């Protein structure tokens, strides 16, 4: 599922970098895990986020994954960046 999420985000958002971390194992026993939906953390770099608030950028991500949210994806935490912001951030590998 991690690779499928990454592919959809790259395509839908013209993302230049997508990193998906499956954290489902950290939520074993959590009520949401019973439905089979995964828990993921994402770093997404796209110029489509330029000029947007953090909330609006996250709404674009949720829209791209829309039919999976609440089903295959139970929870998604994310960081969204433009390329310039990502290059200046601590989120990218050094």
Strand content: 15-25%
The CATH architecture comes to 2-Layer Sandwich
Task: Give me the Rg, rounded.
Answer: 13 Å
Q: What is the helix tally?
A: 3
What does it look like?
The chain has about 90 residues and is α+β, with helices and mostly antiparallel strands. The protein has one domain: 2-Layer Sandwich (GMP Synthetase, Chain A, domain 3), CATH 3.30.300.90. The protein is about 30% helix and about 25% strand. It contains three helices and three strands, in the order αββαβα. A three-stranded mixed beta sheet has the order 1-2-3. The mean pLDDT is about 85.
Write the layout of secondary structure elements.
Layout: H1 2-13, E1 17-22, E2 38-45, H2 54-64, E3 73-81, H3 83-87
Parallel strand pairs: 2-3
Antiparallel strand pairs: 1-2
Labels describing this entry:
3-stranded mixed beta sheet, 94 residues, GMP Synthetase, Chain A, domain 3, 3 strands, globular, single chain
Provide a quick synopsis of the model.
This protein has helices at 2-13, 54-64, 83-87, and strands spanning 17-22, 38-45, 73-81. The protein is of the alpha+beta class. It has one domain: BolA-like (GMP Synthetase, Chain A, domain 3).
């Amino acid at each position: 599922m991690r690779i499928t999420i990454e592919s959809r985000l790259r395509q839908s958002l013209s993302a230049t970098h997508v990193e998906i971390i499956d954290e489902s194992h950290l939520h074993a026993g959590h009520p949401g895990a019973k439905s089979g939906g995964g828990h993921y953390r994402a770093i997404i770099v796209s110029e489509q986020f330029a000029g947007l608030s953090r909330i609006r950028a996250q709404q674009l991500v949720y829209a791209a994954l829309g039919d999976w949210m609440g089903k295959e994806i139970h929870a998604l935490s994310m960081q969204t960046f433009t390329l310039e912001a990502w290059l200046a951030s601590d989120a990218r590998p050094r």
